[in-house]
Amino acid sequence: MRSTFVALALVVVAMPGCGGGHEELLHSQVAPSPVVLADTSAAQLAVTVSLNMGGSDSSSRDKTTIDVLMQHDGRPVQFIKSERVDCVGVRLTAFTGSFDTTVSTASIAGKSVSCAYTSGRKSTPFTFRVPQALVVLSPHEHARVPHGTNTVIGYEGGADNTLWVVAISPNAKAVAKPDAITPNRATLDTSALLTGEGFIVLTDSNNAPLADLEGSQFQSIAGSSRRTTMISVVWI
């Protein structure tokens, strides 16, 4: 039964616009083929930094994936000369057209992150600021929560009323309306939810541009983040 609830929660958080990093780029049938460059210096590369903060289970909730995509003329670059990317002292894993790693969200949330792309003997820096993490403060994990017309969810990390705040039970879900959302709390009508095991899900409604993104030596640089968190509760 619990697996059914988790599947429903995943439908809620896996909405359009979540990004997808290098896997979507490489596995799409319409994706351009990789290119091998004789010159892989930063000036030849268009860089996209993607952060996926948190997740929908206990193993991913406190983790952030840093994904650095690199293209030339709209095509992913196939690196063959030991090029690398390092961020916060961590060597990212190389893929075709991208580098990525997963780190503790607490180690970077709200902080400026310094990275470096190395091609040959040349190391090129780029930096960005990580947004605050989404954290549900109340109710607590596994709490027994009365369902009703004014269920209050408290949290930190919400910047405005574009946040999605969703309550889920086996039969239905309730979504907070924009005028019922503030930077630290949301009020939902959960009266239609069945009693029993359920979830509270918070996620950004759209990818947000990364703040303080710098990388002037690259051909271009862009970046975005998306945050998600979820806790289990029991509706009574």
What can you see in these coordinates?
It is a single chain. With 236 residues, the chain is mainly beta. It folds into two domains: 150 residues, no CATH class; 70 residues, no CATH class. Helices cover 10% and strands 46% of the residues. It contains three helices and 19 strands. Strands 1, 2, 3, 6, 7, 11, 13, 14, 16, 17 and 19 form an eleven-stranded mixed beta sheet that branches. A five-stranded antiparallel beta sheet has the order 5-4-8-9-18, with no helix packed on it. A three-stranded antiparallel beta sheet has the order 10-12-15, with no helix packed on it. The protein starts with a helix and ends with a strand.
State the helicity in percent bands.
under 10%
Tally of contiguous helical segments: 3
List low-pLDDT spans: 1-5, 10-28
Structural class: mainly beta
Given the C-alpha coordinates, what overall shape results? elongated
Tell me the number of strands. Answer: 19
First-to-last CA distance: 18 Å
Q: What radius of gyration results from the CA coordinates? A: 20 Å
Q: What is the total domain count?
A: 2
**Biggest sheet features:** 11 strands, mixed
The helix-strand sequence is HHEEEEEEEHEEEEEEEEEEEE
**Arithmetic mean pLDDT:** 89
Strand content: over 45%
Keywords:
19 strands; 236 residues; 46% strand; 2 domains; mainly beta; five-stranded antiparallel beta sheet; eleven-stranded mixed beta sheet
Write the layout of secondary structure elements.
Blueprint: H1 2-13, H2 21-27, E1 46-54, E2 63-72, E3 75-76, E4 84-87, E5 90-91, E6 93-95, E7 98-104, H3 105-108, E8 112-119, E9 122-129, E10 135-138, E11 144-145, E12 151-156, E13 163-168, E14 173-175, E15 185-188, E16 196-204, E17 208-209, E18 211-214, E19 220-235
Parallel strand pairs: 1-19, 11-19
Antiparallel strand pairs: 1-2, 2-3, 2-7, 4-5, 4-8, 6-7, 8-9, 9-18, 10-12, 12-15, 13-14, 13-16, 16-19, 17-19
